[in-house]
């Protein structure tokens, strides 16, 4: 994997494994349910579902480390994800992996930014995070939260700080109060929703983009696009082409998978480069189709 240098000189990998739990949870359960269908009727209660999900996540994190993807994206808002990462990565040297976690909205509403990070560090079994992000621009709260994050950064509890889901107007507002501007903005970005204006703004300000829902969750609409012939040309999958496209336009893609084969394939993207024309063609797929929450129109208390 290639190194990306953030504006404060912190080095981070150019691909990140996402541990947002909903997907891992549901796919793991679906698979288990399918297996059980014609045998004994198995009713998975909540505890069993959680245990299954955690084993799955732990396994995939280990495989990810072994295959060279050492960057993990989590949040206080992702259920047991921080705990599972802490338990799994504990056996590796701290410098060998890059951890991104997030300040959740509840801690913003409660004014418990410092406690939020301390709880994350405890769950992750580490004494600093590589990158600490504000999960959402919670209205009326995000400026004060950012000031607290600046303090935590200056104390060395996080090597870099940033935001998620900030649109240009959020960043402009933040600029009026911030001493340190975010090093990263983690946003929804994929071929169906390329966010050109926001990406350009961030690039001009030295804010690194991390792209979430980077494969558009392999939305069916992708199968009717130029991605198909491009994938055939390079003998790669659609997911591989999309991830490479992100890297070539300067994004750090975050990708989630509960399937070890998919996960390994997603890392095998460094043996080819898309041409300028192919990058443009993929840009042309954009239909401004947001698949996740809109930061300008959502209920922050529910996230
Ligand atoms: N900051 C934020 O507000 C925010 C919001 C949302 C997400 N995130 C982060 O971004 C991560 C990823 O987001 P996401 O899950 O929405 O999107 P995603 O990574 O684009 O989509 C995951 C889906 O793609 C499938 N997939 C992955 N690789 C594949 C492959 N090679 N072939 C076929 N299917 C493949 C997975 O299925 P299989 O499991 O079957 O492989 C899964 O259903 C999250 O885990 C989280 O860390 C951050």
Automatic annotation (TrEMBL):
Source species of the chain: Agathobacter rectalis
Span of domain NADP-dependent oxidoreductase: 59-286
InterPro entries: AKR, Aldo/ket_reductase_CS, NAD(P)_OxRdtase_dom_sf, NADP_OxRdtase_dom
Cited PROSITE patterns: ALDOKETO_REDUCTASE_2 (PS00062)
GO molecular function terms listed in the Swiss-Prot or TrEMBL record: oxidoreductase activity, acting on the CH-OH group of donors, NAD or NADP as acceptor
Gene3D superfamilies: NADP-dependent oxidoreductase domain (3.20.20.100)
Keywords, alphabetical: NADP, Oxidoreductase
Family label: Belongs to the aldo/keto reductase family.
Name of this protein: Aldo/keto reductase
């Amino acid at each position: 994997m290639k190194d990306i240098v953030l504006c404060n000189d912190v080095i981070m990998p150019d691909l990140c494994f996402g541990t947002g739990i909903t997907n891992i949870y549901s796919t793991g359960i679906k698979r288990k349910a399918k297996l059980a269908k014609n045998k004994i009727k198995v009713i998975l209660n909540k505890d069993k579902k959680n245990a299954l999900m955690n084993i799955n996540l732990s396994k995939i994190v280990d495989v990810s480390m072994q295959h060279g993807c050492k960057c993990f994206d989590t949040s206080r808002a992702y259920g047991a994800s921080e705990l599972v990462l802490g338990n799994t990565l504990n056996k590796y040297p701290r410098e060998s992996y890059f951890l991104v976690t997030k300040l959740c909205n509840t801690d913003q509403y409660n004014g418990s930014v410092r406690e939020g990070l301390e709880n994350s560090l405890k769950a992750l079994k580490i004494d600093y995070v590589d990158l600490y992000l504000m999960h959402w621009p919670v209205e009326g709260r995000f400026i004060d939260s950012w000031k607290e994050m600046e303090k935590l950064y200056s104390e060395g509890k996080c090597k870099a700080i940033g935001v998620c889901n900030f649109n240009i107007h959020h960043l402009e507002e933040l600029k009026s109060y911030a001493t340190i501007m975010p090093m990263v903005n983690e946003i929804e970005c994929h071929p169906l929703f390329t966010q050109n204006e926001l990406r350009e703004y961030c690039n001009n300000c030295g804010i690194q983009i991390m792209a979430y829902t980077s494969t558009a969750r392999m939305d069916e609409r992708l199968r009717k696009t130029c991605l198909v012939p491009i994938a055939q040309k390079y003998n790669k999958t659609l997911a591989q082409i999309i991830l490479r496209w992100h890297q070539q336009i300067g994004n750090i893609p975050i990708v989630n998978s509960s399937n070890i084969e998919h996960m390994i394939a997603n890392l095998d993207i460094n043996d080819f480069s898309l041409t300028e024309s192919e990058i443009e063609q993929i840009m042309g797929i954009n239909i401004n189709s947001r698949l996740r929450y809109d930061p300008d129109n959502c209920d922050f208390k529910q996230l």
